[in-house]
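User: For my dataset I need records formatted as: sequence, then structure tokens, nothing else. Please produce one.
Assistant:
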Amino acid sequence: MRLLTLLTGTTAAFVLAACAAGGGREVTVTATDSACTPNGVDAQPGEKLTLVVKNEAKGDREIEGIEGARLPEVLIPAGRTRRVNFTMPEQGGTQKVKCYIPGGPSTIIELRASGGSPVQSATATVAEQSGGAAAGTTVDVKLVEWRVTPSVSEVPAGRVRFVARNVSASMVHELAVLSVGADGQKREIADVEGIRPGGGGELVVELKPGRYELACLIAPGEAGSTADHYQEGMHTPFVVR
């Protein structure tokens, strides 16, 4: 998470419980400098899983649930292993877990309780996972130095498809969706990274009513940039009603 969120006592207790409480079938997740594997796990509705996350990368890794998956954010230091428990919903379906280097590449791991075939892509991003998904609302977002300009600034709650277009002549940008808490703290919930000049990308997220931001979080040293894109002004308020 490039915009850090301080854990409250309740959240911290939830994280510790998720790591320490008894779990179920063990699933090994291996984090390297380029990706996390596997990217797909078949499970049963209501099944208890223990994600054994082994960090073989040179730096820290994080893992967390996205798009409604109730798995807290957990930090795995370089060279360490963390055990994270997760119970699949009784109704089945697909739960998404994001495994990533803070400020670096990410992998979306699908926990599937549908009994279908394993996911094929080895290093899918949010945009690649959601490219063919149906969405209730589509928002076009233009990225250029130093602005993030959505086609609308307010949408109804539900599934939202963000279609980003980088109209810069020379700079790489990205689109991140940040939730904004009542205390003003911001937390990244989804992103599509590495959008080259003239290129595009998209992601689909399930959003509840509240305040959000659309932003580019590229920091100095990332994608050849010497600037902090967020600090330069690449963020805009976004409301879900």
